[in-house]
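Working notes for the structural subgroup meeting. M.R. asked for a predicted model of this chain before we commit to crystallization trials. I am recording the input and output together here so anyone reviewing the notebook later can reproduce the run.

Input as submitted:
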Amino acid sequence: MNPTDILLSIAIVGIYTLIYIYLKSKYDNNKIIIRLFVVGFVYATIITGILYYLIKFIAS
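Returned structure, recorded in token form:
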């Protein structure tokens, strides 16, 4: 995996996670926000990985 691909994946995961937290953060409790961050990060990582390998499979 190229360094550019790694940075792009990190950026996409960060954007997904921030959007997820923004949409769900109607809470003042920090524990809930941290849990949402972890769940959003996991979801975004899985989605990014699937998209990356799907695009890599189609391109080859």
